[in-house]
Amino acid sequence: MEPMYTQTKEDNPVSAIRERILRNTAKNRIVDKIFSFLVALFSIVMLIPLVAILVFIAYKGLSHIHIGLFIHDERNGGILNAIIGSLMMVLMASVIAVPISVLTGLYLSENKNSRAADVVRNIVDVLQGIPSIILGIVAYLWLVVPFKSFSAFSGSFALSIMMMPIIIKNTEESLIRVPDSLREAGYALGIPRYLVMLQVVIPAGISGITTGVLLSVSRILGETAPLLFTAFGSRDLSFNLAKPAEALPPLIYKYATSPVNEWIDTAWAASFLLVLAVLALNIITGILTKKWKINY
Amino acid sequence: MENQLLNDTENKTADSRAVVKIENLKVFYDNVEAVKGVNMVFEDKKVHSIIGPSGCGKSTVLRSLNLLHSLTPNARIEGSIKLDDENILDQDPMTIRRRIGMVFQRPNPFPHMSIADNVLAGYKMNNIQLSKTESYDIVEYALKKAALWKEVKGKLNKRGTFLSGGQQQRLCIARAIAMGPEVLLLDEPTSALDPITTVNIEELIMELRESMSIVIVTHNMQQAARISDKVAFMYLGELIEYDTADVIFSNPTDKRTDEYINGVFG
Q: Domain A68-292's class?
């Protein structure tokens, strides 16, 4: 049989439809431009709500921010008790959630194909879908009822469960990307498995883990529902995890629904602070992710 | 007479002393026999190459020497590997791996560590305490041995991943020899490197040969011919022929060795 490449130009099937090929290219060029335009347009449209929220909240809130908010508790016209309460509960929630979640993520990445890992992965997915108010009720039943008191700790517990799926997934994804050759390098030096995990695998994936932690913090920073039955709220400045505590989101709800104009202004100021904190966390996440990223 | 005896022992150590004896080694993955009863002896101060086509079991043999097969859940091993007459398969892998070092195909320095910390990784991560002087001496010794000292002595605290591929591989060799291994295993150490860097690594291997036993798996037959004292040819999980480099490359006894060497298959 004669090979194909000896064909003459005349019986080349491609040359016969050459014109059609070129016409098609021209048409594609137009569609390409329209498509690029639409993509750019919708990206800008999508930015509008975000920018609008930021501008509106800054406009409403900035003018009502004064030093008194940061040095007085609610009884004296400030929101210091809510700021401290938020920080305290987020910190405690992180202390609970980070170690458990990072180790779970490590387990999932080290046993990617096992049946047990599949079960855990599904449970984590379900956990992520549970409405936050339910987590608040669970924390109420487990921690508020037995101890006969609302407490900042029970709020932290509810928030920590919300953090876990985000940290677990980010940890798993970043640790799976750590190449096996690095693990082997560790083993080949006679390093026991747990130390290879703690000193090679986790440090290599630290950028993804940090991303997960910061994202989960910015996620729970604005949560109101899990705190309703747990931290409950308080008008006094308190550093006691066993006592009720205020946080910024429930404070905003409380003040924004009040009939007093001054209180509504304070709600705007608190909203601005909260949005600013979330925004800052996201920017920090972006910077750290880039800075600590390791290319293998 | 006493002098004579002393000389004899010295000669014996200076002469080829068997460090590793592989006896009837079989490795199975699930029920597939990847290595089928291999016998080999590796001697001190010699370079041993294992050559053969892909999938012939050469890397599996090398990894068994570092007991890395135990990381693969479905791998099973039979026979014995004796290091100084003790079967390493019965011993603690952590200790054995400190005596038998390994360098891998792709350079794999720890990306979050400095050059110095990479060299000391075996100590640091095993919580073996070192004084500052000891640390520095080990870093200098290992990097000098790995022919990397001159290039990196000014930037020991920089990350190892900023180095070029060949430098990274030499850093990995330094990391292995920092533990003072009796045997150094190299799994295709130059296959990811350019020709000039490859020559550097080969020269380095020839120098390391002065103080330890070296086993290298390679796809590159010219490389095996250049650096080896002894060459093993493996095919389909079997050791076909194991002899001095001269015999293997100029006068092999087995037809399959001859065909592989001359590029008939592989």
A: mainly alpha
